[in-house]
Design a protein that fits this description.
Largest sheet: 9 strands, mixed
Strand order of the largest sheet: 18-17-21-22-16-23-24-25-26
CATH class of the largest domain: Alpha Beta
Shape: elongated
CATH topology of the largest domain: Rossmann fold
Strand content: 15-25%
CATH architecture of the largest domain: 3-Layer(aba) Sandwich
Distance between the termini: 75 Å
Radius of gyration: 32 Å
Length: about 625
């Protein structure tokens, strides 16, 4: 039953639980444990969203193609058609898990849980096939093939051979360590998948192995493998000659001992961190912006791209330098991106010619850009290489991905995001640029307070970036306090994580306004907006006069009273109560609260003859306002 896998699924989708709040029967996720997973009932409940459900409901909440995701937790309907069982062991020969081959040809992994087989590898550390042979023969060449059958074929011929679980395109970086300092030969199958797999393994092992070769077999048919080679054509002598004649791949083994002694160092010799914009865009690192749909995150990031491309302060922050930027929008068509760029330039009075050779852009509607794909989150190296080559050729400084969800077809799980963001960070390092990821919040938080834990997918996405900021819409209450007619056109930006810079002290606010283009379209653009200062218009002299008058008249604390203390503030500050009475009353209330907090005023209780009961009044406090 699928609910038996609730723990594995929760850890995969939600990341690490809150250890302080979790128990053996219940896992809690988030800083305050707002997400609860009942391990006995196989259910979950989000206290933040006030909704819950069963195991399948939990998967639906985070995975678009939930049917495909759940397949790996299904048990085979029959075990009568098992053809082979391939045990994967540790270096001492103890079985960790098995790969079972069925007829017709399919493969399923299984592991023991103490009472029987569980048909998945959740929580299992993956290892190469026949790991004990590798460690028992430390001086022998290791032959890497595609599939357990081929490995067994080479073992029968007297070689040390291995493969990875599930063959082509499924090589996991965590198994690289077992090949450290060894001489390795890759023997791919004779097809395109085999070629791509060998290229991937070479990339993984060329900084690990002592030596590395790829042997392409002289077989007649496409998809023939090493078993076919020995079964029909080849001999051991011929195979050894193929290995000998194969060109060596240049390897740069990483030191197996990374530790070094500290030596005295001048701080001037350490390169400073290379911030490009607003302590958020950092060269060699990935950053992320998280927000609900429609709030303005695309407009914000595109405006920042233009600010950096022109070295102009458009939203209250000066770029560190003029940059070349690459902006990829996976949601909108190319003409919508063009509308926004033109509107931003016109609104901020920017000569469009300044963007030539400094702003590059693309639409996912016109060109399929997929950074990862498939249920296992396979990295699309061809796409990454294309992007890296372009960025190096054009000397790109900032690369923006908007939004990440549209550039992958894989489930948004913790493990998949961990692999994808690691590759994105490698791109930033390889190309010496800053990568900005625009990302949606998970379902159910529209219109609610947003924080870094609101991001779709697991916690590994936030852990992989060096700066994370969140955009939150203005609330109705905040709009009322500011005297605004509506809250829908304002949002704030806050740093939710900053590993390399001191976080900003307060939120930064933006206002969306409409800009009319000559073609008749209206496009939203952004202005920096300041939250009104409740003490604007208040001087020490005026404050002292108000303080003396309140001491003289002793007004009531209740805003409903005819002689409410706020009326004195409104009158003496000459606030406009005809146009915005609500704003004037809110401002007066905030001033009175702050003065009570700082002991400029005090509240006391006394008998009121008019109402015939004890009520609260204002009087002068212990702090006298003075120059």
């Amino acid at each position: 039953m699928i609910q038996n896998h609730i723990k594995e699924i929760a850890l995969d989708l939600l990341g690490e639980p809150n250890k302080k709040l979790s128990t053996d029967k219940e896992l809690r996720f988030g800083t305050y444990g707002s997400m609860s997973v009942d391990l006995e009932k196989g259910t979950f409940f989000s206290h933040e969203d006030n909704e819950g459900g069963g195991t399948i409901d939990l998967v639906k909440r985070y995975v678009n193609d939930y049917v495909d995701y759940l397949k790996k937790y299904e048990e085979p309907k029959t075990r009568d058609n098992i053809k082979d069982i391939y045990p994967y062991t540790d270096k001492d020969g103890n079985t960790l898990f098995e790969v079972v081959r069925f007829e017709p040809k399919t493969f399923r992994p299984r592991r023991m849980n103490g009472t029987g087989y569980v048909w998945n590898l959740q929580g299992v550390v993956q290892v190469p096939y026949r790991l004990k042979d590798i460690y028992d023969n430390p001086k022998e060449v290791i032959f890497i093939v595609e599939g357990e059958k081929d490995a067994n074929t080479l073992v029968k011929m007297g070689y040390v051979a291995t493969t990875n679980c599930f063959g082509a395109s499924n090589w996991k970086p965590e198994i690289n360590t077992h090949f450290s300092g060894r001489d390795c030969v890759i023997v791919p199958d004779n097809d395109q998948a085999g070629k791509m797999h060998s290229e991937k393994v070479v990339e993984q092992l060329k900084t690990v192995c002592n030596s590395l070769k790829v042997v392409n077999l002289p077989v007649a048919n496409e998809s023939d493998d090493v078993t076919d080679y020995f079964g029909w054509l080849g001999s051991k002598e011929e195979f050894d000659k193929l290995v000998k004649d194969a060109p060596s791949i240049k390897c740069k083994p990483e030191s197996t001992v990374p530790f070094q002694s500290w030596a005295t160092m001048d701080a001037m010799m350490i390169p400073p961190r290379r911030f490009l914009y607003n302590n958020h865009y950092i060269r060699d690192f990935a950053s992320i912006t998280i927000a609900t749909g429609g709030i303005g995150k695309s407009t914000l990031c595109l405006t920042e791209m233009i600010a950096m491309a022109t070295n102009r302060d458009l939203l209250g922050s000066n770029p560190e330098q003029r940059c070349r930027v690459l902006y990829i929008n996976g949601e909108d068509p190319i003409d919508e991106i063009q509308r926004r760029i033109v509107a931003i330039c016109e609104h901020h009075q920017i000569d469009q010619s300044l963007l030539v050779d400094h702003l590059y852009y693309a639409s996912g509607r016109d060109y399929e850009l997929l950074l990862s794909q498939g249920s296992e989150g396979d990295i699309n190296e061809n796409q990454f290489k294309m992007i890296e080559e372009f960025c190096l050729e054009k000397k790109i400084d900032v690369f923006c991905v908007d939004p990440l969800a549209n550039l992958t077809t894989s489930p948004e799980t913790n493990e998949i995001f961990r692999t994808l963001t690691k590759r994105i960070s490698e791109l930033a390092s390889n190309c010496n640029l800053s990568v900005e990821i625009v990302h949606h919040t998970r379902k159910g938080v529209q219109g609610m307070e947003t924080n870094v834990e609101s991001a779709r997918g697991g916690s590994s996405l936030i852990a992989a970036v060096r700066s994370a900021r969140v955009l939150s819409p203005m609330t109705k209450e905040e709009a009322e306090k500011c005297g605004l007619e509506t809250h829908v056109n304002h949002f704030r930006m806050e740093l939710g994580k900053s590993n390399l810079a001191r976080p900003i002290d307060k939120a930064v606010w933006f206002q969306r306004v409409g800009h009319d283009l000559d073609n008749g379209d209206q496009v939203a653009v952004l202005n920096r907006w300041e939250m009104p200062d409740m003490f604007s218009g208040m001087s020490i002299e005026l404050g002292r006069k108000i303080q003396r008058r309140i001491e003289s008249e002793r007004p009531k604390q209740s805003p409903r009273a005819d002689n409410w203390g706020g009326k004195i503030v409104i009158e003496m500050m000459e606030l406009d109560i005809t146009e915005s009475d609500k704003f004037a009353r809110v401002k007066a209330t905030q001033i009175l609260k702050e003065w009570v907090r700082t002991d400029v005023l005090r509240i006391y209780e006394d008998y009121d003859k008019r109402s015939g009961r004890t009520v609260k009044f204002y009087c002068e406090g212990g702090k006298v306002l003075s120059e």
